[in-house]
Design goal:
Chain A: Pfam families: RNase_PH, RNase_PH_C. Chain A: Keywords: Cytoplasm, Exosome. Chain A: One of its GO terms (cellular component) is cytoplasmic exosome (RNase complex). The complex is a heterodimer of chains A (about 240) and B (about 325). By secondary structure, chain A is of the alpha+beta class. Helices cover about 30% and strands about 30% of the residues of chain A. Chain A has helices at about 90-105, 130-145, 170-175, 205-240; strands at about 20-25, 35-40, 45-55, 65-75, 115-125, 155-160, 165, 180-185, 190-195. In chain A, strands 1-2-3-5-4 form a 5-stranded mixed beta sheet. In chain A, strands 7-6-8-9 form a 4-stranded antiparallel beta sheet, sandwiched between helices. The radius of gyration of chain A is 18 Å and the shape is globular. Chain B folds into 3 domains: about 1-30 and about 180-330, no CATH class; about 35-80, Beta Barrel (OB fold (Dihydrolipoamide Acetyltransferase, E2P)), CATH 2.40.50.100; about 85-175, Nucleic acid-binding proteins (OB fold (Dihydrolipoamide Acetyltransferase, E2P)), CATH 2.40.50.140. Chain B is about 35% helix and about 25% strand. Chain B is built from 8 helices and 17 strands. Chain B has helices at about 10-30, 135-140, 140-145, 225-245, 245-255, 260-280, 285-295, 310-330, and strands at about 35, 40, 50, 55-60, 60-65, 70-75, 75-80, 95-105, 105-110, 115-125, 150-160, 165-170, 175, 180-185, 195-200, 205-210, 215-220. In chain B, the strands form 4 sheets. Chain B has a 5-stranded mixed barrel. Chain B has a 4-stranded mixed beta sheet with strand order 1-6-7-3, with no helix packed on it. The chains are: A alpha+beta (about 240), B alpha+beta (about 325). The interface of A and B includes residues 53, 145 and 189 of A.
């Protein structure tokens, strides 16, 4: 199948190095300490953060740092065919773990000893790159909850199809079976916190693809930063002196 | 916008936007752009040494924010004041909390902090008002003072060595709160002031603005007076108890009855707080009172206060109030 037309356009009309439209919104869940909505093209996710709060299960309490928990779910209506998935299937457990580890790397957990932070992410509409969208939404929600972080974490995916590196794969490109590299970075520190790939790629091509994904992450980081700054200013001027 | 799911019509939208724009222009005049997001570099003068406070981190010789908020500078100290975050206790704060658990010699209270706070039996006045050592009997009767899910007003005593937060309630003004409602708002909307316990005489309502963002609106209870009076009261009560028990229960009923008017006032004040908090305006007694007067002068029903028109009116009122304030200053 042809994923990049001779004119250099992808199936959804993007250029190979072009990202989908991204949009974020802070404060999507009223009762949560922090929450956000994040959209990458047709992929839409919602994240809610509760905490730092008292640890529910005393035996899990850590005396010198916070416990971070994460739960990833996909809404039944998020995919084309409506399938009822059992809670905690392999895929969602794995993604929960990935998101938890990525977020834990940036949260300054030692500042909140003996407490727990819960991150809930739910996919409302899936069109490839749900992992990345969830991480971006979780970052926004954590910042909204006022949880101290080393840096923002942003994530973006990239692939390699028709011997062209492609940024931000959608569902059709994702299911083509080619390599799909999901990268999560700390933009300020310039460090990688997440790197996943489920195919083989030659070394030199991999570097190109990863560089492309990192560029995508940086673009998202800029957007998220603007969004947070705007939100902070709003809160401040409304509150007044 | 958080918590603000209103169906505004076109004019209301424009009016709200104009009021908010006015507020924005006022604040930008007042303070320079000191807002930061996570991982922003905070500009500091490296020639004099800098003390890094909360919400900052040193990275390659730069001071970097770890929170979203406003940069504050006090002499050499640089810190980031967060806006939306959980409560951060300071010694002496007056707070409202909910009892989550009764443990040996202590209650655990949920106060919107990262851990539950501890109220020791020994750090509160006993109901009989006598100063003495707490015995095992007192410990067994702890549920007669506070039970689970009771709302309690107390003061922050401080952090213990093990990092737990302790509270105290060594005055008659603290203690269990009954016959009213508790509202949860973001703690940054409550400013620390001299007075947090208010008695609104014209409504017959007690208002407690807890520093942790828990707001109590309830029927006014007379302060129990001094210790000695208390004891005489007790003696009298004992006498009446012995004389007739049926009379006592009637009195009890009368004591727990709240008049309709008071209940309506409570709801009106609570809705005023809800409107202000949803709009993100800081919550003080003056503003709450003003909002309540505004609603009653418009002859609005209590439930109509949560309608979109009233939100717009409150926002406009806030904008004019702030502009008046800055004019007076300038």
């Amino acid at each position: 199948m042809e994923f990049v037309s001779p004119e250099g356009l992808r199936l959804d009309g993007r250029r190979p190095m072009e990202m989908r439209q991204i949009r974020g919104e802070i404060g999507a869940v009223a009762k949560a300490d922090g929450s956000a909505f994040f959209e990458m093209g047709n992929t839409k996710v919602i994240a809610a953060v509760y905490g730092p709060r008292e640890v529910e299960n005393r035996s899990q309490q850590i005396s010198d740092q916070a416990l971070v928990r994460c739960e990833y779910t996909m809404a039944n209506f998020s995919t084309g065919d409506r399938v009822r998935k059992p809670k905690g299937d392999r895929r969602s457990t794995e993604i929960s773990l990935v998101i938890r580890q990525t977020m834990e790397a940036c949260i300054l957990t030692h500042l909140m000893p003996r407490s727990q932070i819960d991150i809930f992410v739910q996919v409302l509409q899936a069109d490839g790159g749900t992992r990345s969208a969830c991480i971006n939404a979780a970052t926004l929600a954590l910042a909204d909850a006022g949880i101290p972080m080393r840096d923002l974490v942003t994530s973006c995916s990239a692939g390699y199809l028709n011997s062209t590196p492609l940024l931000d794969l959608n569902y059709v490109e994702d299911s083509a079976g080619g390599p799909d590299v999901t990268v999560g970075i700390l933009p300020k520190l310039d460090k990688v916190t997440l790197l996943q790939m489920d195919a083989k790629l030659p070394m030199d091509i991999f570097e190109n693809v990863m560089q492309l994904a990192i560029e995508g992450c940086k673009a998202i980081a800029n957007y998220i930063r603007e969004l947070l700054l705007e939100n902070t200013k709003q809160l401040e001027y409304r509150r007044g002196p | 916008m958080r918590g603000l799911q209103l169906s505004l019509n076109q004019t209301q939208k424009l009016r709200l936007q104009r009021a908010l724009d006015q507020l924005e222009s006022l604040s930008s005049k007042a303070n320079s752009n000191a807002s930061v997001a996570v991982a922003d570099t905070i500009p500091v003068n490296y020639e004099d040494c800098v003390l890094k406070g909360h919400g900052t981190l040193e990275l390659d010789g730069e001071v970097v924010a770890t929170l979203c908020g406003v940069v504050e500078r006090v002499n050499k100290l640089v810190y980031v004041r967060t806006l939306r975050a959980r409560y951060k206790p300071e010694t002496g704060d007056i707070i409202v909390g909910r009892v989550t658990e009764i443990a040996p010699k202590r209650w655990r209270l949920d106060i919107n902090f990262s851990q539950d706070a501890v109220l020791m039996l020994s750090s509160m006045n006993l109901p009989d008002g006598i100063q003495r050592r707490r015995t095992a009997v007192d410990e067994l009767n702890m549920r007669s003072i506070f039970e689970e899910n009771d709302i309690v007003c107390a003061e922050v005593r401080g952090f213990q060595h093990d990092g737990s937060l302790h509270l105290q309630a060594r005055s008659q003004k603290y203690g269990k709160l009954e016959r009213g409602q508790v509202l949860t708002i973001s703690p940054y909307l409550v400013k620390r002031r001299k007075q947090h316990l208010h008695y609104l005489e014209e409504f017959g309502v007690d208002l407690i603005l807890g520093c942790n963002g828990f707001i109590w609106v309830g029927e006014h209870v007379e302060a129990k007076g001094t210790l000695i009076e208390d004891q005489t009261d007790k003696a009298e009560q004992l006498n009446t108890k012995s004389s007739s028990s049926t009379f006592m229960s009637l009195e009890e009923q009368e004591r727990t009855y709240t008049s309709l008017e008071t209940r309506q006032n409570i709801c009106r004040i609570a809705n005023a707080v809800r409107v202000l908090a949803n709009l993100g305006f800081s919550v003080t007694v003056e503003v709450i009172k003003e909002t309540v007067y505004l609603s009653s002068s418009l002859n609005l029903d209590i439930h109509e206060m949560l309608g979109s028109e009233f939100y717009v009116l409150v926002a406009e009122g806030e904008a004019t109030r702030k502009s008046m304030f800055t004019k007076k200053k300038g």
